[in-house]
Amino acid sequence: MLKKLDEIKSKAIDELSGISDIKALEDWRVRYLGKKSALTQVLRGLSALPVGERKRVGASANETKDMLEAALAQKSEELKETELALALERGGLDVTLPGRPIPLGRLHPVTQILQEICDIFASMGFQVVEGPEVEWDYYNFEALNIPRDHPARDMFSTFWIDFENERGERPMLLRTHTSPMQIRIMEKTRPPVRVVVPGKIYRYEATDATHETMLYQIEGLAVDENITLADLKGTLYEFARRLFGAERRVRFRCDYFPFVEPGAEMAIDCFICGGSGCRLCSNTGWIEIMGAGMVHPGVLRGVDYDPDTYTGFAFGMGVERIAMLRYGIDDIRLFYSNDLRFLRQF
Ligand code: FA5
Fold this sequence. Notes:
This protein has eleven helices and nine strands. With 346 residues, the protein is α+β, with helices and mostly antiparallel strands.
């Protein structure tokens, strides 16, 4: 058996010296170290040998195996170096070529603006909170002073969820604004409250240059003792100054929302026409970016806040409209048409 191992060793080393390519080396490995090789057969047969012989043959067989494996590793290195040298000689391999660039993704322009707006409010002491996109009628409408069958519901074109409760009502919808989070937050906390809520909302309406069916809003809510309309105006003017710069004109005027009293609307002068009137601003010179107002006393009472002690302001802004103003984009539909030529500009 020991003689057989010596023969295997010398034959293998002899053949190895004549090998000059990787393929032949792999064949050699299979022949001398593979599962069906003579060496493996010897190792497998060890248990059948008498103890004394088993020790001697076992030691020699393992030594042969180690030696052949070392010779294989060395030959493999040599061949790789030779192949590289040959490739360089042929000029087929240029190791000085720069690597292939790995394309990097980036944040969507709406996400960028959303984060920037949240950062501005965070620096003014507002916490950032998120809430559900599928909402109950109660939070989206009723708790916000918009009871069932009230005409104010017509202000919101709604996607109802096809789910009926035991009374035959459909109480679930895709939220039409981020305002339901005002109620959810006030239900869970006591004043002082100061939060902004970014998130997606859904409206069942025809799309055009300034209207989408899915959009982002950021809700703001501050409730404490002695909060006045001056705090609301001061906060929103400071926000507009930081986001758009001091030179942009801001319009703040009365508007109606059932859950605030008084209610207001904030608009920025149109970046296309500079205020003279064009298609984008429907010839008004202004682009509306948010609704706002002082939290209605009825809403405060509904969440067990005493309106004689606490007052607050709230606002809800459209993030796409703000991104349009910021980047000079004249059609909201560009944000969600997945055109990389558009998206790569940001
Ligand atoms: C509201 O959604 C109120 N919840 C805002 C509010 C909050 C008022 C708190 C008072 C207190 P409105 O429907 O006006 O209001 O929408 C607010 C903003 O969202 C608009 O100013 C506009 O910037 C944006 N917006 C609304 N509908 C669309 C739409 N279909 N496409 C693009 N932006 C929209």
